[in-house]
Each structure stands twice: as C-alpha cells, then as structure tokens.
Amino acid sequence: MLDVRDLDLFYGDAQALAGVSFGVPLGSITAIVGANGAGKTSLIRAIAGMETPRAGTVRFDGHDITGRESFEICDLGLGQVAEGRQVFPTMSVEDNLELGAMVPRARKDAAASLERVWQMFPRLLERRRQMAGTLSGGEQQMLAIGRCLMGQPRMIMFDEPSLGLSPAMVHEVFAIIRRLHEEGMTIVLVEQNVAVSLHMADHACVLENGHVVMEGRGSDLLGDDRVRAAYLGL
Amino acid sequence: MTIDLANQIVTGLLTGLVYSLMALGLSVIFGVVRVVNFAHGEMTALAMYAAWALFTWAELDPLLGLPLIALLLFVLGYVMQRGLIDAFVAKPEHMQFILLVAVAIIMVNGSLLVFGPDAHGIQVPYGFDTYEVGPLLVDKVRLLAATAALCISGLLMLFFRRTMTGKAIRACADNLVGARVIGLNVKRLYAVTFGIGAACVGAAGALLSMLIDVMPSSGPELTMLAFIIVIVGGLGSMGGALLGGILIGVSEVLAGYFLMPSMKGMFSFAILILILILRPQGLMGARK
Are A48 and B139 in contact (CB under 8 A)? Predict the structure, then answer.
C-alpha cells in the first residue's frame, strides 16, 4: 500500500531522516517506534507532503507521491491524524467534521460520512454545536479521528494518538484504531506507548536518529532483547 | 448649533461605514494570510480611478459599476497572491513589507503616469439630493454608499459563517497545520482570501469615488486610514474594522466642526495613540 525508499529529510543543515526505507502492507497495522527526536513525526510529515524530502521516493497505492502537495496526497486517500490533534479550536464540532470532507474525493458523500461519524462517536453528536477548543483532550482526539474519516481515507497515519490522554481515554482510542483495522483500514501507528503498539501491530519498524534500525513482525520485535532493553525497560 | 452638529455626526457615521468596508479587506487578509497589505490604500485608489473612468467614459454610475470593479480587484488580488506574495508568506515580515511597499510605489506612479497629478472626482446627477429625516439633512449619495457598504460587509460575514469556502478560509486562520492535515488547498484559499480582501477594496473604492476626489497621493493616505481603523478596532477582527471605521469617520467630521477640516488626520492619529496606550489589542481584538 505504502512504500518508502531511501528517504532523506533535512531541516536546514540538520538531517532528520537518513535513508529511511519501509513498507506498509495493505490492511495491516504498521507501528513505527523510536525515542523522542528519532524522526517519527518527520517521517509522517514527509509522507503526507507537509515537508519536502531531499532524496528518496514515496509510493502510495501505485502513485509516486514524493514531493507532492498535501492536498493532492489527501485526495488519493492517505489520511492523517496528526500529533497534537490539530482541530480548529474556534469552530464548532460539526464545522470541523464538515471541513474534513472538503477533499474532492469525499465531497459528494459528506452527508453519509457525517452520519457514520455521529454513529461511531455519539459524544461528538451531543456536542456538535460546541467549539472544538472547549472539548476535553480525549474528545478532541475523537474529533480529529472523525474529521480524518470524513475524508474517506484508505490508509490513516496516527501520530501519537494517546499522548496526553487519561488511561481510560487511551484505551478507547486504541479500541477505535483496532475497530478501523478490522473494517479493513490500513494503519500506520506512531506511538510512544511502545508495548501497546507492538502488541497491536502486524508489522513494525524501529527508528533511531533518522535511521530504520530494525524492521519485522510486531510480535518478533516485542521479543527482541534490544527492543525490550531500550523501549520497554525490561 | 446642535442640529448642525448632529448632521455632521450622521455624515461622519455614513462615511465611516465606507471606510469600514475598505479596512475590512485589510483585516481579512491579515487575519488569514498573516501578511499586512501595505498597498491597501493604493489598491483603493486604483478602484476609485476605475470608477471614475467608467463614469466618465461609459457614463456608468459608480453604484452600478461596483460589481464590475469588485470583480476586477478580486482578480487582481488573486493574481497578486498567487504570483507574487505567496513566495513571501513564510518569509520574515520585513521582506513582505518591502515587497508590498514596492507594489504600492508602482501603483502610485502608474496612476500618476496614466491619470496625471490632478484630482479626479465624480458628480453623479443626484449628487446634491438630500433627504430630510426629522430635523436632519442626509446626503443621498452618502446614504446610498453607506447602505451598500453595510450590505456588502454583512454579505461577507455570511460568506465566512455559512459557505464551505468561507469556513475553509476560517479554518486556515484557526489552525494552519490542521488545514494542511485534512488536505485543504491552502495556497488556493490564501489567493481567494486576498481576492476577497481586494474585492472589499474595489467596492469601497467605487463608493468612495462618489464622496471624495482621487489623486495619486490618495493611495498612501488611504493606506494609513485603513491601518488606523484596523488597529483601533482590533487587527483581524471583522466587527472591529466596522467599529473602527465608524469611529474614525465621526472623529474626522468632529475635527472639522470644532477646529478645521485639515486637522482631521491629527484626530485620527490621536485616537490611534490613545488606543495603543490604553488597549493595544484594539477595541474588539483578542488579547494573545
């Protein structure tokens, strides 16, 4: 579904990604784990067209999307739930969701998508007129996920979806991701919560200082001594 | 005495509403694209020249020419943003400043070249008609211009509240990263925003052309006027631009009434300084 080859990304002179290669199989959950500053968010942003890589290629669903604009990439069906949720704080919950369906691929079916999101997140329906900025962190995360679904993506990249949420809310967010996976969505999961994300993932890669240092099945990595020592503190 | 003063205040109020529409354009552009349009008054002057040309050569009433002029300025603004300003959006502010000052200088000297240094004014056939409202005398031209300005401002607010394009533009102002995450075409929306800001200027220019003369030096004066209005009202606030315009319009006539008309600028700047000292975010601006 997604194929990243030899991706280099620089911020000025600082190299954020160095020759990153990995693949995301159709219908899988692929976890990207690594310490703070390892380049996880940079990788997501480079794939989504929000940063321009210096070298390498990104292919999504047969299209070469390297260096394309973010709105073009979204319109191919590559959705993103970004770090920090990035909702529109002074706009209503309903407006936030409707804006998610502004990409051409989703515009026609916006009404049906909205119904689906209301069903999936009844709490958002209760608060449809409320400003997004006044929602709790967990509700904002649901709004961010719902808004992404409004764009009718075929693959979603989640960047730190559990960051700053209460344990109950974290549980709920992971349940939603599992449910989307069961419905056939291809998922990339970037998480600080390494144990949970490796448990969930079919496929995983470990990022260190902008390099992929390990790649394999989630369960294999979970059993790997180096991963256990570095990320799980075992 | 009091009737005369009341007449003056009504005049200032009506003129102020037209100022508001012009300042609204500046406020919308800054609020979304985060670029300060230092060529704002020059664009207004351009619109006034267009109104004058249409009136003189095609005998088109400025009120009827208004949609055409607004459309023209929309295209100008759209193209300016797409072709010129977009490359500077992420650049430091002083670079944006130099760019737009350059645009302003070109516009001033271009109009000097085409229309010469003399003042051009429009005298519509109903220019001296007045309405008697109780004891007050209201100029017909001014009333029409103010009504049109108010209607256009209202339509603009509806556009931002009700249409998807309007909401998408607000979304860009609200959270730019979020706008890119969900695949909004930010560059196109910025160009539309600049176009809308310029269309406000076009409409305001057409209306102003019936109230005041235009000459090449009108541009910088109107830029200052628009700045004072949005800073007094609160930069980026649409309601603030409306309030600021009325306030400055009234202060101008009061300066003329109590002192002399040539001192109106001094009054406007005094209000600006007071606001900067007492309420730097402007009357309706949000404190960051």
Answer: no
User: Which parts of chain B fold into alpha helices (H)?
Assistant: 2-33, 40-58, 62-80, 93-115, 140-162, 164-174, 176-181, 186-208, 218-233, 238-258, 264-278
- Residues from chain B contacting residue A87 (CB–CB below 8 Å): 175, 178
Q: Please state the ipTM of this predicted complex.
A: 0.91
Does A99 contact B175 at a Cβ distance shorter than 8 Å?
no
How many whole angstroms separate alpha carbon A200 and alpha carbon A171? 12
Among the partner-chain residues A84, A91, A147, the one whose CB lies closest to the CB of B182 is A147
Interchain CB contact of A103 with B (< 8 Å): yes
Question: Mean pLDDT over residues B227-238, rounded?
Answer: 91
Which of A70, A75, A91 lies at the smallest CB-CB distance from B171? A91
Query: Would you call B182 and A91 a contact, using CB atoms and an 8 Å cutoff?
Result: no
Domains and CATH numbers, chain A: 2-77+154-231 (3.40.50.300), 89-152 (no CATH)
For A91, which of B170, B180, B183 is closest by C-beta distance?
A: B170
Determine contact: A75 vs chain B, CB below 8 A: yes
What is the DSSP code (8-state) at residue A92? Answer: B
Residues recorded for chain B: 288
- Alpha-carbon gap, residue A155 to A152, rounded angstroms: 9
Contact B175 A88 (CB under 8 A): yes
Mean pLDDT for all residues in chain A: 92
pLDDT (tens digit, 9 = 90+) per residue, A187-199? Answer: 999 988 888 888 8
Is the torsion defined by CA of A91, B234, B229, B126 positive or negative? positive
Per-residue pLDDT of A14-70, as tens digits, reads 889 999 998 999 999 999 988 888 889 999 999 999 999 999 999 999 999 998 999
DSSP string, B74-142: HHHHHHHIIIIIGGGTTS-HHHHHHHHHHHHHHHHHHHHHHH-SS-B----TTTT-EEEETTEEEEHHH
Q: What is the mean pLDDT of residues A68-80?
A: 95
Which chain B residues touch A160 with a CB distance below 8 Å? none
For residue B107, pLDDT over 90 is answered with yes
DSSP state of A136: -
* Helix locations, A52-166, DSSP H: 70-75, 93-100, 104-107, 110-120, 122-126, 137-150
> Which distant-in-sequence residues (6+ apart) come within 8 Å of B89 by Cβ?
B33, B34, B35, B96, B190
Give the gyration radius of chain A's Cα atoms: 17
Mean pLDDT estimate for chain B: 94
* A158/B162 Cα distance (integer angstroms): 31
CATH number 1.10.3470 is the correct assignment for the domain at B2-278: yes
